[in-house]
Design goal:
The chain is of the alpha/beta class. It is built from ten helices and eight strands.
Length: 324
């Protein structure tokens, strides 16, 4: 978020211009990443069409990622240091540290939150990430940090030991990397929970059912990009154990009571923004979707950025505890 200079009003012209420029700078950055990815893919396809490459055995050929996947992972890899620094100066580290027990992290990306978990409180993290490039970066982050037992949900790599002391006796938290889209994975998990509940006489609780659910759910700048945000929020509620904690940090639609100019600017910027940033939208009413997902025992959400009229990336952050 643009910082306030000494004596600077949140409605000053200079700050308004800075607010307008911030998303433009991000879009330029991602546009360069898209261009670079297309050039790289074109080069890879030329190499793969050579006689030597065609004659190579199928087992030695590597799959070529899509342009959008490559651009997104490339942009985040290059942008990660400044992005991580910005996150570290805000509320996110203390939020992530509240995760306990089994944790579902949707869209972990390259693993920015890995270092922020309190591993004395966490037993297992399931990270659902659709991007192949970001999954590789996530694995690299886990390797570099150390102290994690890494597993993979796909059969080809299930149980692969990426560190010392695999298993429950290692004293380490497990991180399971799941190669899937958030929406499809959640729908399947909710279906399994319902089927298991019916098989156990319709009991809403019980060890068998709760083994499929999570003590904590972490959503950080992900719900802006899913196709059906209301459905995803409801499904996140369903996979959260009673008494479990939802931890969120999302950019959202501007409040109408702060003026409509910012809302219309969000709609205008959405056209190139959504195309360049993998379907991300600036005007999601995520806080409303989360509050309406189910019955909450407590809701502690904070809004920030709405006081600046032209700031297009206001956020909501905090925790929500599911009713028992």
């Amino acid at each position: 978020m643009p910082p306030f200079a000494a004596g600077q009003s949140p409605t000053s012209l200079a700050l308004r211009i800075q607010c307008l420029l911030e998303p433009i700078q991000l879009m330029i950055f991602f546009a360069v990443a898209h261009l670079s990815s297309h050039i790289l893919l074109f080069t890879l396809r030329l190499i793969s069409s050579t006689p030597a490459a065609i004659a190579a055995p199928p087992s030695s050929r590597k799959s070529v990622p899509s342009a959008s996947d490559l651009a997104f992972s490339l942009a985040f890899s290059l942008f990660a240091p400044s992005f991580h620094k910005g996150e570290s100066e805000g509320p996110l580290p203390s939020l992530v540290a509240q995760a306990t027990g089994s944790v579902l992290e949707i869209g972990p990306g390259a693993g920015s939150q890995v270092v922020r978990y309190d591993r004395a409180k966490v037993t297992k993290v399931v990270g659902v990430e659709v991007s192949e490039g970001l999954r590789r970066d996530l694995e690299g982050t886990l390797r570099r940090q150390g102290g994690w037992d890494i597993s993979f949900s796909d059969e080809g790599r299930r149980g692969e030991d990426m560190g010392a002391g695999k298993g429950s006796g290692s004293g380490k938290a497990e991180y399971e990397i799941v190669p899937a889209g958030v929406e499809g994975w959640l729908e399947e998990r909710v279906k399994r929970i319902e089927e298991t509940r019916l098989a156990n006489g319709g009991e809403a609780k019980g060890d068998v059912v709760e083994e499929l659910m999570f003590d904590s759910v972490l959503a950080c700048l992900v719900l802006c990009s899913v196709d059906r945000p209301q459905r995803v929020c409801r499904d996140l509620y369903k996979v959260l154990k009673p008494g479990g904690k939802m931890i969120v940090m999302e950019h959202v639609r501007r409040n109408e009571n702060q003026g409509v100019s910012g809302i219309w600017l969000q709609k205008l910027y959405n056209v190139p923004w959504s195309h360049l940033l993998a379907g991300c939208r600036l005007d999601r009413e995520t806080e409303t979707y989360l509050r309406e997902a189910g019955e909450w025992e407590s809701v502690e959400l904070t809004q920030m950025g709405h006081e600046m009229p032209w700031f297009l990336l206001p956020k909501v952050w905090g925790t929500m505890v599911k009713a028992q």
